[in-house]
Amino acid sequence: MKETNQSSNQIVYGVVKVSNKGQIIIPVDLRNELDIKQGDQLVVTKSKDGEGILLLKMKVLDEMIASSMYYCH
Question: Class for domain 3-72, per CATH?
Answer without folding.
Answer: mainly beta
